[in-house]
Design a protein that fits this description.
Rossmann fold; about 475 residues; 5-stranded parallel β-sheet; binds adenosine-5'-triphosphate; alpha/beta; 4 domains; binds magnesium ion; Helicase, Ruva Protein, domain 3
Length: about 475
């Protein structure tokens, strides 16, 4: 990898030596100067990736050069050269932001190696800055909120698998957070400085998906007026997120399988095999096993993708997460719509805890956004949340997924219903009191110890009901 390098040293012999080493094998583009006072001017006119500077020079020292360089562009890597006797000050320089230091005299291999590393580092810095800008102010680490047992399991799973390069299949109903989890795996991985490239297999037309993924060469089809890079190439070194993988045609499944298995692919219209270093994460809300039976999905591809499976449970199975998510969306849409949405009434929260949420978190998010817009005061009321259409009526009576209890054996049905009732009762009592067990117990007319026992039985944790900013 060649780069643009500035070398500053008052000793002409040293400059000549470094220039010879660095412009040799790696073909770096080198500027040298024996006058540190020229540096401000040089920096103004050029963008260097690496600056190598001597520490002790009569006119100005290396630390001052370091400061000038960093002031212009903090992603430039500065390497400090120092005589063996003054390592202390070189270390000091690294504390002030120098990338590394080398002691004189040095071996050719060492300088080549340090410069190579510095150029890589500098490019990663640039790319990180670019990614941050692309996310335009959104936090780089997407917050996966929720303190339910299910979410805690999920966090543990993400931590464990992020550092590997294993292929992951994320399953879950629509709106459960599959894309968010995929991004979380990427940002916790060693590939985080490289791109995360999502591709939605359900929205790209069949005829275009191959060139979208693998790129094409000029003239390979009408409209291919120049070579085009595919997403696979863009994702190199990073993560490719194959969303809605269940919608991929069988013909494309074969090509994808080859890419995953052998790391090889061909651009459309080209016979050259290309290689990619990619981590694959796929997601679907469909039942792939079912699709395999119907011949719509290849079994071999399924096993390749499903090396690790992350299943995200639907929101109705982790209703403890509702309060935290609600407060998060209140804040988010309060800012977006310029409203002071400070909180939510107890009745309104109850209402949210009673719904079935077929659209999961995305649906909750939409309901809160609409509520924030509708609200006249700074507290969200139940009427602000009522659907204006009757498409998603609030759930009344037992949850729909309990509909089949009337055909179950009596005892089993009774236990299921009681368990559901207890979970809902306790969740709502805790939600009303922001997770304060003593208050919830008093309000429900039971002893605190008894409530704790019920919470353990139903797997509810009080901290899941705390508002994000309330004290422990
Ligand atoms: N645990 C969570 N904490 C905070 N926000 C969440 C969480 N899970 C999901 N969301 C938000 O809910 C919305 C839907 O999430 P996402 O797009 O990841 O779901 P999905 O499973 O990919 O949905 P679909 O199947 O419809 O594509 C997004 O705005 C996301 O930020
Ligand atoms: Mg999605």
């Amino acid at each position: 990898m060649s780069g643009k390098i500035l070398i500053v040293d008052d000793e002409k012999d040293m400059l000549a030596l470094l220039e010879r080493i660095l412009s040799g094998k790696m073909a770096h583009s080198i500027t040298i100067t024996d006058d540190p006072l020229q540096v401000p001017d040089l920096l103004k006119r050029n963008n260097y990736e690496v600056v190598i500077t001597d520490l002790k020079m009569p006119q100005c020292n290396g630390i001052q050069i370091l400061e000038m360089v960093k002031q212009k562009d903090e992603t430039t890597a500065v390497i400090i050269m120092t005589a063996y006797g003054s390592i202390e000050s070189a270390i000091e320089a690294t504390r002030k932001g120098a990338y590394d230091y080398i002691t004189k005299p040095f071996r050719k291999e060492i300088i080549l190696h340090v410069v190579e590393k510095a150029i890589n580092w500098q490019r990663l810095q640039k790319e990180n800055g670019y990614l941050r800008e692309k996310l335009d102010g959104k936090p780089q680490f997407p917050a996966l909120l929720g303190g339910s047992a299910a979410m805690e399991r999920l966090h543990g799973q993400i931590d464990r698998i992020a550092k590997t390069s294993a292929t992951v299949l994320i399953t879950g109903e629509s709106g459960t957070g599959k894309e968010l989890v995929a991004r979380a795996v990427h940002v916790h991985s060693l590939r985080k400085a490289r791109p995360f490239i999502p591709i939605d297999c359900s929205t790209i037309p069949e005829t275009l998906i191959e060139s979208e993924l693998f790129g094409h060469v000029k003239g390979s089809f009408t409209g291919a007026i120049r070579d085009k890079k595919g997403l696979v190439e863009e994702a190199n070194g990073g993560t490719l997120f194959l969303d809605e993988i269940g919608d991929l045609s069988v013909a494309m499944q074969v090509k994808l399988l080859r890419l995953i298995q052998e790391g090889e692919y061909k651009a459309v219209g080209s016979n050259t095999l290309r290689k990619g270093d990619i981590r694959f994460i796929a997601a679907t809300n469909q039942n792939l096993q079912e699709q395999i039976k119907n011949g719509q999905f290849r079994e071999d591809l399924f096993y390749r993708l499903n090396v690790i499976n992350i299943h995200i449970p639907p929101l109705r199975e982790r209703m403890e997460d509702i309060p935290v998510l609600t407060h998060h969306f209140l804040e988010k849409y309060g800012v977006i719509h310029g409203k002071k949405a400070k909180g939510i009434s107890g009745e309104a929260l109850d209402h949210l805890l009673l719904r079935d949420w077929p659209g999961n978190i995305r649906e909750l998010e939409n309901v809160i956004e609409r509520g924030v817009i509708m609200a006249t005061g700074d507290i969200l009321l139940e009427e602000d949340l009522l659907p204006t259409d009757s498409l998603a009526p609030p759930r009344t009576g037992p949850a729909h997924h309990l509909d089949d209890i009337f055909t179950m054996p009596f005892k089993e049905a009774k236990d299921r219903l009681i368990e559901e009732f207890q979970t809902q009762y306790i969740a709502r009592a805790l939600a009303r009191h922001g997770g304060n067990v003593s208050q919830a117990a008093r309000d429900s007319g039971v002893k605190r110890q008894y409530l704790h026992r019920l919470m353990r039985e139903t797997n509810l944790a009080s901290k899941a009901f705390r508002k994000p900013d309330s004290p422990e």
